[in-house]
Amino acid sequence: MAKRVAVMSPQTRLARSRRRLRGRWRMPRLDPDDAERALRNYRLQRRRGVAALVLIFAMLLGLPLLLRVAPGLTDVRLLGIPVSWLVLAVLPYPLMSWLAGWQLRRAERVEDGTGHGDGAR
Question: Is residue 66 part of a domain?
Fold first, then answer.
């Protein structure tokens, strides 16, 4: 049987050797002011992230409910395609893209220091 040989990039080999020399990775220590600011940013971003998750779940769960409440959308056609299909196949993607951009802007504001309160938009 032929001997197996691992083929890897020289950079991979170098990274592995450095890892062995350095030991375990340790969390960097922050001075108290930076640690407090990091914790505040983490909590604010988590709170804002939950709001974005609630909106995406509401959208994804709301679309089937919309079709249940308005079954007539199946009969309405746009360019020969039932509107109910368009609602399920096309509408979620621009909404999710908008939601992702909105959440990114909110997270960046927290990091920049311009969105410290919950009321900031």
Answer: yes
Q: Looking at the 3D structure of the chain, how many domains does it have?
A: 1
CA distances from 106 to 8, 19, 49, 95 (A): 41, 36, 9, 16
Burial of 55 (0-12, 13-18, 19+ CB in 10 A): middle
**In sequence order, what are the beta bridge partners of 28?**
none
Q: Which of 54, 71, 62, 68 is nearest to 92 (CA)?
A: 62
Domain that holds residue 71: 29-112
pLDDT per residue as tens digits for the range 12-41: 766 666 655 555 656 677 788 888 888 888
Q: Is position 22 within any domain?
A: no
